[in-house]
Amino acid sequence: MSKQDRIKTLLRFYGENATVHGIAAIHNSLSILRKVIFAFLFTSLFGAVIYAVYSSFYSFSLRQVYTSVEKESRRNIEFPSVTICRNGKATKSSLPVNIVDKTMAKLEGIKNGNASLSALHKFVQNASLEVRAAFENSNMSVPEHPPMLLRHIKDACLFASNKYCNVTRDFRSTYGTDACYTFHGPGPNTYFQAENGPFFGLQLILYVNESDYLPLIETQKGAGFTIFVHERGTIPLLEIGGILVAPETFTQISIYKSETISLPYPFRTNCSDGEGLTNYFPGRYSDQSCLVTCFYKHVFEKCGYVNPTIGGKIKPKKKSKVTIDMLKCELEMRDQFLEGDSLAHCDCPKACKEVIYDSKTSSSKWPVDGDLPLYRHLAKSILGFDPINASDDFSSKNFLKVRIYFDELSVMRYVTKELIGELDLISNIGGHLGFWCGASVFSVFEAIALIASILFMAIFGKSGIKVNNDKDLDMEAFEKSVVKVKSDKDLDKDD
Fold first, then answer.
1. Omega of the bond prior to 266 within 30 degrees of 0, cis?
2. Which of 76, 163, 236, 431: disulfide with 230, CB 3.0–4.6 Å?
3. For residue 411, with 0-12 CB atoms within 10 Å meaning exposed, 13-18 middle and 19 or more buried, which class applies?
């Protein structure tokens, strides 16, 4: 049998036994008209398959994503870190005596001289820079016990209504000063809230010590504290957010935890875990920490100023004192960043995982006037002050109460998932092949085997199928073994 006849026989066998419905229909049709109709249908439907497969590949190449929202309830939930910062960071007690005396003398002179508002504003601006420079240059020791938590108040720090905090263990200075302390930072001791509501969270009674503030200089945020609730193991960005709490109030802060999980490149979210990026803040990478890092890096390069909040991550060759010119330069850079002029230099991709604590606050007057005589009577034993000095006015202006708690023991999870993955792509292609042409994975292997056999016979003149003694298969015997659909005499010629 000639090579051409062998190929024809192989094609006839494939046509009669192909699992692709269209090919079998074309081959088994008895009239030319039927063959043409089925051939046209098969060609059209196969074109639809090609278009559908192209669309699937195109959608897959876009790496599109969708976000699923899940509310995950928990039996208990780990309490976050809470950082408490005094609004007036540079106080009289933290500054050199000569700076305090000089500033207070100037304030008295302005007050007695009836200075204009513009002159007052200019003085405050210059004095604030001078005080800030003196504060950052001072080598003051940082007390282990936070000064905002008086030792004499037993329930100054209370968790779940009955667990007294170990203040020296549970609180750590945040940036090496006495202005900010963090509760429940990194460490072996872990706090969990096991029930909903304010009585199962953290309670703090904070001492403001308003008389220690420098008038007009360190009072821009008012008397009181700024509270940051953040993921444990991280340091908050003091430039961003925070909840202000004021004296003479009882503030309740209900918090809600949410997690956002995104996908890295090549997906469209193109998030990052911070690998390879400079980050001056410990803990999980965030795009906000990246922006603040970028800002401080530019400030150091242009102004030579190292802000204490970056924890000594920048180490200049020669340590120099902070000057007023450095601080003015930093303020100018800050204005540029706020206007967005310098953000173009910052490559800060979205973080792949973000943990956010949203909050709601409510407050009421505290202590209540009816309780003030009691506080005054017990001043010596509770507050540590002489009752004569602990007037009602003193008590109301120097203390505040805060409760921080989870309102629900649940976490909102926003999880980004790929819209079309590799398995989805294969399933789509298989679905289109099966729907339009009745093909399957096995059909693909059939076509591959047919093409390979034809090429083998075209090159070597043999079928490639071996039997006993490695002799070529007798193609005539092979042709006789092909199963016939019907004999010619049984066919309806009208069809």
1. yes
2. 236
3. middle
